[in-house]
Design brief:
286 residues, alpha+beta, 2 domains, 8 helices, globular
Length: 286
């Protein structure tokens, strides 16, 4: 009973925050919806959900089951918190990509933002509940909080222009332990995963100085972890580099905007320097 009460309270808290922010988005837009495009989006969504769910079940949920429980002991230790950054990113990416996808189908701005937020929040919450019935994992309030922040970040960007210049990306480069067979899927290996915060410096300067910059090149701050083999030598890695802003490239058709938005969630190889631990320069950092 106590577990059910805490879970219900957490879910109510999540959606109450969303509802408050989405209050200004609930007006219906007068838009022409393309039934074919919307049908294709629905079909792709169903297929993607089935495929991703199968992978998640294989990686995380096929082990021993348990009664619903919370994870308190190892939640912030086993990946040095890199999993929380990942939860934030994927919730943010799902919400933003679905917003662009629904707009492409002809749904208006407000409704697209509403539905994409609900889709992201619902799937990520479902994932956490499934974790709660896994003996190995358990429901993580840290993951839940990161999911909430990631889902709501596109709404913050709508409300505050400054945050439109701060976006998040991901990239992968095989780690030594991944190449040794530690994981079946690279996105499950946090040593192979790099999360990036990108900043559009051009837009942050006064108008008279913007001609000296290009919107195609952004500043990037990256993070990864190494040494997650229980040897006691686990550490964070931080990077500073540049990032290619794909959305700044020419092409204003609906389909090109959608494709550029999707591609722009991945940090393409670019010059960078590792600033911690130690200094290492990369001509191209993947």
């Amino acid at each position: 009973m106590k577990t059910a009460f805490i879970l219900a309270f957490g879910l109510l808290f999540h959606f109450q925050i969303s509802a408050q922010i989405l209050n200004n988005y609930t007006e219906s837009d007068s838009s022409r919806i393309d039934g074919l495009k919307l049908g294709i989006i629905g079909g792709v969504t169903l297929g993607a959900f089935t495929y991703v769910h199968a992978i998640q079940n294989h990686i995380w949920w096929k082990g021993e089951k348990s009664e619903f429980h919370f994870e308190w002991n190892n939640d912030w230790k086993y990946s040095l918190g890199a999993d929380k950054v990942g939860h934030f990113f994927f919730s943010y990416a799902i919400a933003d990509i679905y917003y662009q996808t629904l707009k492409y189908s002809g749904i208006g701005h407000k409704d697209s933002r509403l539905y994409s937020t609900i889709l992201s929040a619902a799937y990520q919450t479902y994932t956490e509940i499934k974790d709660g019935f896994s003996k190995k994992w358990g429901f993580s309030w840290g993951d839940f909080g990161a999911n909430t922040l990631g889902t709501l970040y596109p709404l913050l960007q709508d409300q505050c222009d400054f945050f439109q210049n701060v976006n998040f990306k991901i990239s992968f480069e095989k780690s030594q332990r991944f190449e040794a067979g530690s994981h079946n899927y690279i996105f499950d290996d946090y040593e192979s995963t790099y999360h990036w915060m990108t900043i559009n410096l051009c837009n942050l300067f006064p108008d008279e100085y913007q001609n000296f910059f290009t919107r195609f090149i952004n500043l990037a701050v990256g993070h990864s972890v190494k040494g997650l083999d229980n040897s006691g030598r686990a550490n964070h890695e931080f990077f500073i580099g540049i990032d290619w802003n794909i959305e700044s490239l020419p092409g204003d058709s609906d389909i090109l905007k959608l494709l550029k938005s999707i591609i722009n969630k991945y940090h393409l190889p670019a010059p960078a320097v590792k600033v911690y631990p130690g200094i290492i320069w990369y001509g191209l950092k993947f």
